[in-house]
Amino acid sequence: xxxxxxxxxxxxxxxxxxxxxxxxxxxxxxxxxxxxxxxxxxxxxxxxxxxxxxxxxxxxxxxxxxxxxxxxxxxxxxxxxxxxxxxxxxxxxxxxxxxxxxxxxxxxxxxxxxxxxxxxxxxxxxxxxxxxxxxxxxxxxxxxxxxxxxxxxxxxxxxxxxxxxxxxxxxxxxxxxxxxxxxxxxxxxxxxxxxxxxxxxxxxxxxxxxxxxxxxxxxxxxxxxxxxxxxxxxxxxxxxxxxxxxxxxxxxxxxxxxxxxxxxxxxxxxxxxxxxxxxxxxxxxxxxxxxxxxxxxxxxxxxxxxxxxxxxxxxxxxxxxxxxxxxxxxxxxxxxxxxxxxxxxxxxxxxxxxxxxxxxxxxxxxxxxxxxxxxxxxxxxxxxxxxxxxxxxxxxxxxxxxxxxxxxxxxxxxxxxxxxxxxxxxxxxxxxxxxxxxxxxxxxxxxxxxxxxxxxxxxxxxxxxxxxxxxxxxxxxxxxxxxxxxxxxxxxxxxxxxxxxxxxxxxx
Length: 508
Description:
By secondary structure, this protein is an alpha/beta fold.
């Protein structure tokens, strides 16, 4: 039901006279392919990160990519509805009430059971769509093991395939033969062919370029893997991704986020320290400028240092800025909150070792109650900035005015104070901001009050595209208008820096 269904469903979303056997081929003929450095657009409460450069449909100025995404939303809703219908039929069939009714009306009970079974397992019904409850989950596991694909899963697979085709218009490398071989194999559920395709992609482009090529649809590929493998435990990741939520399990084994709480249990600790000569030199030139903040975060490194800045602002108020760096990739876990375990914890939860240590920092630094704060973070630091803003204790004790997240997957998080201004900076070559389930191909929205600025630049390859320096360079050069926009939004913090105090954060 995959490739053909994708073309048919996408074609049905087009206006009359615009349908064709292959939407991708038509789009390839009609669409100009943007250069990698093309501006992908600014979004204030925007939905999909699909830029304005795709081919434009004849009706209402909508692009083919937008129509594909619209069709994928409809198909995803249908898939979720079919899944829910399967759960309700399963519950009715296995209910003790049905057993009691069978005692008084056996003929009716048998007829009802047969009808439910046909609807659940018949090819003209839900196609082995049992799920929910002990009976439903056992039946679902049996279906997974015997490769029985429910109608809901088939529709979900096609919805993900539409997303992939839609974003290929903005990312021409995703439409290359090597990348198409991989995505087609994933859509078809052919893992052996997918492994071969990934190997060919890596051999052709190298590991970093291969990862960057598929990064715009990495969540869709993970979701396809979860839906089409034999492991029923990771299906939840796929369905949450399809529905536009933030996954709370890993995509491979389906391990719950609560497990990370046991792996990252530190109470958090903050110790004052002194800046070394390199950091001191960078801080000496700092001011209230987003490029300066990103450069300062880069100078702090990823070994536990954060910075609390005190600013005597132009309006006479004293405000504070907390700079939060991202993850150290050296070890899975180290003595600081800035490790890989902490990164996954920060993505899936709000109360983490990093946030606990940062709260203690604010207390230890003597930041007065009611003070206005701005949190600026890169990667894990951006997630932690949002986690702090979401903390009711922090928001009730201080006034969190702004959160600036740089290259961070924050779209599923919300500040406790609705007046907090959230600014998200996203390089669309960077895979990390997509780990929250909302990548360039996602049709999901963020709040209207947020400012999301997304672009494509020359950094391209991950991890270079994720580095603070890549973001700093982009904002300093080609994306200078975004720099001006952010600086205008944070103008409240213009003034004289009267204190730069580094702190070393520890797990314990």
